[in-house]
Write a structure and sequence with these properties.
Length: 143
Amino acid sequence: MSQPIQELPSEAEVETLFAQITTALCVPVILDGVDRLPEGYRIRSHDSYSPLPDIEIESTPNIEQVLDRISLSTARLGSTVRSRHELATRAHDCKFIIPTSTGKVTVVGICTEGGTVRARGGNACQAYQKLNNKMTEMLHQAA
């Protein structure tokens, strides 16, 4: 017997889950909105520096998988926020470039007095980790 298809969570339920996870992780993220797409959801948010990468979740008939994907993506976003905070702490008066995704690559960057530094990764979390490493190397070379 096949299991009955559960109704997907509403935008309000996705917002609530997002808020619960960011609160539990102590991540200072502001939710801009949840959009219901034909293939799932898009969660838009920002931190104190600039817009964050959108979280896009594909829907499946299994509601638990949808909720797990939202949880995992939100936790990954928390890591991105922490990386940006670390960068901003070390590079005073910086501005972040709005992350862009092109296919399977995400490009992030930071503008400082010394110029613009960019990094690429499979997702924003990986790209910000690479950016953090580049900035660490630059600061060590300058010292």
